[in-house]
Automatic annotation (TrEMBL):
InterPro entries attached to this UniProt entry: ENP1_M14_CPD (IPR034274), Peptidase_M14 (IPR000834)
Species this chain originates from: Bacillus swezeyi
Statement: the UniProt record of this protein carries the keyword Disulfide bond: no
Top-level taxon: Bacteria
GO BP annotations, alphabetical order: proteolysis
Gene Ontology MF, one: metallocarboxypeptidase activity
Protein name: Peptidase M14 domain-containing protein
Amino acid sequence: MAFIKIKPDLKQNMSRLSDILNIPEQLLISANLGASLDEFYFPGVNQQAGKDAPPAETYEQLELLVNERPRLDEEQWLTETIVYDSAALKNEIEKLTECFPFVTSHILGRSALGQPIYELCLGAEDAEKTTHINASFHANEWITTSVLMKWLKEYCLFLCTGQHVLGFSPPELFRQTKLSVVPLVNPDGVDLVLLGPEHLGIERDAFDEMNEHQPDFKEWKANINGVDLNNQFPSDWEIEKRRKPPKSPSYRDYPGDEPLTEPEAIVMRDLIASQPPDRLVALHTQGEEIYWGYKGLEPPESSKVIQTFERLSGYKGVRFIDSYAGFRDWFIHFYQKEGYTVELGKGKNPLPLSQFDDIYCKSRGILWASCFFES
Ligand SMILES: [Zn+2]
């Protein structure tokens, strides 16, 4: 973890430290919540020297140490587009929490194959609003994780540089909103699509029937048990159970034998039930549409927020669709709070990485606006 040793007295004056570092005070407070008295955490890269360097005794010494740190915007991994299998995500979460100590990561639970499902959190401790964003419920929609992580890195970077974007002030969003991000809901499924069954230590034949004898797994949408995680939630689940074509586990669309049989769906239900956010955004592909209503149970704010989303993305808001038992459906049904499913990009899933720049350019405004609440 990146920190420097510091004379505890110096930490009494966070606003002075904020001036020296040119970083919002709120970020420093957030980054130092768990720090011991003589440790000082602040955004930066390669501060491994922290343990061995002599402690900063004065503000001047601190300033010298700070000036030695590399510039954040020269770090290539921060701006790179990455395709995330579960190992790549783990690697990047380590870098991100090291570089930006105001971001915390937790393992919410485990997938069917025992892989961790991560949540990343940031936002001021006394922030009044909460937003949750997730990606890759569906395995063949892995590009959504790339979009979400690229934006999260942009958010962290702009928090430190103070850069405004699309009319939003990142430090203001940080003060206003606690953000919860689950970038990879279905790690087993995404690994199957990107790396193949052998990588997971499973014989190819074991999936052949569920995969309807297709030569590869690139269209696999379900979790590793052949259950569609976004058809697993107890809100008119019976309707989907009755009408979805697969009557047994399949590479796509099977709602399960009952609601919430799959560990990934249970993890997401538990996360929301323990602290229902004010706003929920689920990233999927494809269609350039945003679903925002559910049986008229959505709150009145949704009809305003969707206009902002439409304006920033050029995507089309759709209030009602004939679909049930999804994560967002259940959220609106049970909590009557804002929920949006964003269908990124256009084409046939899996969307190719060549679409990434176009998708990101259109959708990043939705992600920024997700953290903004009209006061
Ligand atoms: Zn989807």
